[in-house]
C-alpha cells in the first residue's frame, strides 16, 4: 500500500470507549475521507452538520445527503470509504455498540 494519500484524512476523536459502546466524533474538511474500512460492530451515526457523503463501496460509489440530526444505523460488516463530497466541513458522531 502506498504511503501517499490523494485526499486529506478525516479526523476521528474518541469521546467514550467502554464495555458497552465506542463513541467517535468524525470531522471532515471538504474532500477528506476515512480510508477504506470494514465495520466490525453495528453502529449509529448522528450528523452534527448537514453531510454530503460520497460512499465508495465494493459495488461502486454513490452519493448520499443526510441532514443534521437525522440519525441512522447500520449492522456490522459494512465496507466502505466515506468522503466529504461537499464544499463545507462536515462532522458526525458514530456510536458503535458492543452489546446486543
Structure, described:
The protein is mostly beta strands and 100 residues long. It has a single domain (11-97), classed as Jelly Rolls, CATH 2.60.120.10. 0% of the residues lie in helices and 54% in strands. It is built from no helices and nine strands. It has strands at residues 11-17, 21-28, 37-38, 42-47, 51-57, 60-66, 72-74, 79-84, 90-97. The strands form two sheets. Strands 1-2-9-4-7 form a five-stranded antiparallel sheet, with no helix packed on it. A four-stranded antiparallel sheet has the order 3-8-5-6, with no helix packed on it. Strand 5 and strand 6 (60-66) form a beta hairpin. 15% of the residues are buried. The model has no long low-confidence stretch (mean pLDDT 94).
List keywords for this structure.
Jelly Rolls; mainly beta; single chain; four-stranded antiparallel sheet; 0% helix
Give the number of DSSP strands. Answer: 9
Helicity level, as a percent range?
under 10%
DSSP summary: helix tally: 0
Main sheet: strands, sense, barrel? 5 strands, antiparallel
Helix/strand-derived category reads mainly beta
Radius of gyration: 13 Å
Query: How many domains?
Result: 1
Task: Give the class-level CATH name.
Answer: Mainly Beta
CATH topology group: Jelly Rolls
CATH architecture: Sandwich
Strand content bin: over 45%
Strand order of the largest sheet: 1-2-9-4-7
Give the helices and strands as they follow along the chain.
EEEEEEEEE
Shape: globular
Mean pLDDT: 94
Q: How far is the N terminus from the C terminus?
A: 35 Å
- In CATH, the homologous superfamily goes by the name Jelly Rolls
What are the low-pLDDT stretches, counting only 5+ consecutive residues below 50? none
InterPro entries: Cupin_2, RmlC-like_jellyroll, RmlC_Cupin_sf
Keywords: Dioxygenase, Oxidoreductase
GO molecular function: dioxygenase activity
Domain Cupin type-2: 25-95
Amino acid at each position: 500500500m502506498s504511503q501517499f494519500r490523494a485526499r486529506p484524512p478525516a479526523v476521528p476523536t474518541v469521546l467514550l470507549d467502554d464495555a458497552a459502546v465506542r463513541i467517535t466524533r468524525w470531522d471532515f474538511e471538504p474532500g477528506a475521507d476515512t480510508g477504506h474500512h470494514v465495520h466490525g460492530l453495528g453502529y449509529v451515526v448522528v450528523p452534527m452538520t448537514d453531510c454530503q457523503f460520497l460512499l465508495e463501496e465494493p459495488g461502486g460509489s454513490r452519493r448520499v445527503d443526510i441532514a443534521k440530526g437525522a440519525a441512522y444505523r447500520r449492522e456490522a460488516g459494512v465496507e466502505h470509504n466515506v468522503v466529504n463530497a461537499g464544499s463545507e466541513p462536515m462532522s458526525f458522531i458514530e456510536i458503535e455498540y458492543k452489546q446486543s
